[in-house]
Amino acid sequence: MTLSVKNYYHGWKTELNRYMFRIAKEHLKNSKMKFLPHLTHSLYNGWRCFVIFLSSIIHAFFPMFLKQHAARSIVKIYNEMKQHAHLRKMMKEEEDENKST
After folding, report:
1. Rounded to two decimals, what is the model's pTM?
2. How high is the pLDDT of residue 91?
3. What angle do CA 61, 63, 64 make, to 5 degrees?
């Protein structure tokens, strides 16, 4: 077998795909979510962050509008995310790390 650029690229690409799928499966397992609910949850939170971004830009130029929208929305997202076991674990690990430094 000769080593060609095509064979090298195909092998590298295949290994990368395997790695990505393994990491994705681990993440879904840790999240205790199936793919579709995870997809919709992530898209929903991404959309909410985008709306917060837009409201912050509007507030930056027009301080009389959307005075507390961004702050309240972030707190609401934070409180909702604390309900996920894997995120509570992550927050506790970060809290313990911050206490030790």
Report:
1. 0.69
2. 84
3. 130
**Residue-number span of the structural domain to which 2 is assigned:** 1-31
> Dihedral through CA 36, CA 38, CA 39, CA 43, nearest 10?
140
Q: What is the pLDDT of residues 21-42, one digit of tens each?
A: 999 999 899 888 899 999 999 9
Q: Is the pLDDT of residue 44 over 50?
A: yes
Element (H, E) at 45: helix 35-61
Residues 51 and 92 in one domain: yes
Q: Are residues 71 and 22 in the same domain?
A: no
- Do 14 and 39 lie in one domain? The reply is no
Rounded-to-integer distance, Cα 98 and Cα 94, Å: 6
